[in-house]
Design brief:
elongated; alpha+beta; ten-stranded antiparallel beta sheet; 19% helix; 10 helices; 472 residues
Length: 472
Amino acid sequence: LMKRLFSCFLLAMATVLVFTQCDDTTDSIGSSVVPENDKITARTDTLFANSRTIMANDSILASSSDVYLGQYTDSESGTTFVSSFVTQFSCAKDFEFPEEGVIGDSASYTKLRLYFNEYYGDSLNAMRCEIYELDNTLEEGTPYYTNLNPEEFYDVEKAPLATKTFNAIDFHHHDTILNSEDYTRHIEITLPNSIGNRFISKFYETDADGKNIGKAHFANSEAFINDVFKGVYVKCTHGDGTVLRIYRTRLDVGFKRYIASSSGEKDSIQALSAPFYSGKEVLQANKFDNNDLKPLVDEKEHTYIKTPAGLFTEVQLPIVELVEGSDDINSAKMSFTRYNEESGFATKAHSNLLMIRKSELYSFFLKNKLTDGKTSFLTAFTNNTNEYTFTNIANLFKNCYDEYIKSGLSLSEWEAKHPDWDKVVLIPVTTTEDSNGNVVKIVHDISISSMRLRGGTEYRIPIEVVTSKFNK
């Protein structure tokens, strides 16, 4: 009996020891089967980037659906911005004047109308513009930038077709008309009737046999621009304090013709107008001038983004420092703080900011690209923090570093051949979305704004990174 009790005691003790031993090793079973060299260590770190202000120069495409006309002096920076534009006009396919011609074969009026849906600055400010006829056309497929030289398109020795002094609000009309839903804000400029007469005479042009050959000049927009009227240059010459955002330019040729009255005789006169529009079918281009920008470029406490033309912010990233210090970059984030106060129309924040490798600056917009999460990134302005935050740009670092490694060059050799390899540029953009909220188009934001960002030589921008590496 004693032996049996002792055997039971030993069995019980062995069972307790087995279960105790299992409890002691369960917690570490995961790490115990991983070799020490294969363990991953993750860490959060902060690196710093340098930033500076650079001139936009010829990097902003001038072609857009809207154009600007006017001038203002930025109270914050003291710089003066002047905007003018070049535009062509479309002709409806197979356009025709009346078959039997017009009275006197001449125009009753020729008017240029500039339609605008928005203006910046003082509505009472007196403005003045000059209208010049183009001698050369804007070429399809040629990229034009906002520093284009209008003198390449018109004869500077010729007098303007017309000069117009105006206000953003037309005081020739009563308030009831200005506030009417049927009234569209526009500037009306009377041009010489020689322009309208040319249109009419060109249409009724005949050959030696009397056959009409003029209709071919109006067969489409291309023929009209090359054969009849190449367009106009609208130049701002006066009026500091107001800028109009023009969404459509229209050229109207008025004429009269005889029509049959109730008696059946053609003894009644009908007044008509032939409209020719700027639009998607033809080219138009902004011309922007910004002076006195060098003090902003040289400022040490901030960087600037000034639109529609002028300044961007360039950021130099610590690519090598980050990538060579880890086996993998899990995430990277950086924020840019805006320092403007809302003190006028020229200091509002842009809705969206594009971060793009400097080497991709031109091709991105020329080829109508979208962000790819490797060389380009998009973010929206956060109003409550007054910041633009790019939440995950880890692939940017990897992409830049991989290019350098694949080259087989030393770092000094690589940087000598590619001085901008570690630089990105911040550019304001506007986006178009489809019905599902996907961005399908990105273009330059050419609204009027001047933003100061924290940076420059006095402040390095922090980059929050999470990296991981295998133990060695």
